[in-house]
Specification:
The chain is an alpha+beta fold and 164 residues long. It folds into two domains: 39 residues; 101 residues, Rieske [2Fe-2S] iron-sulphur domain (Rieske Iron-sulfur Protein, 3-layer Sandwich), CATH 2.102.10. 18% of the residues lie in helices and 29% in strands. It has two helices and ten strands. The strands form two sheets. A six-stranded antiparallel sheet has the order 1-10-9-4-3-2, with no helix packed on it. It is elongated, with a radius of gyration of 25 Å. It starts with 18 loop residues before the first helix and ends in a 9-residue tail after the last strand.
Length: 164
Amino acid sequence: MRRFLPSEFKPVYFKRSSPSLAVAQRIVVHCLAVMLHGLAILACNTGTSTPVVPVTVGQASTYGVGYLGFVPGNPILIGRDSGGYYAMSSYCTFDDWDLSTSGTLNDQGLSCDQCDSLYDRLGVVKRGPASRILAHFQVVIDATGNLVVHPEVEVAIAARTAPQ
């Protein structure tokens, strides 16, 4: 294979009236538009990821039966029902928006303000376009009585940590 030296390259100049110039300009403009659109999507999406280290959410005794709420500073929901404590992701499974900032939590469940998906209080989809349940994470009670969520360990939707 022959190697070319930089001095062997000659620039190619187009005349203003050349159709090749117009095509090249359209291609460049189109490519720039596609790149800017991609950057706009990235900038609009929250883009934060679920933590991969344990998250201490507070004393277990402060969460009564029927509680469901967001963990401040983390994309996690902590809840308690008659079976015990549970934790799940607060990311919409359709468009990956963090529902703690782009969602509504009420007695019926959780809704995404971006795609209008609706989840019940256990993270099961009640109305799409989302089609997957919210991921559930392991919850443990440490020696001091704090609830610790392990988002690096996914568990079944029925998994609960019994109160002590």
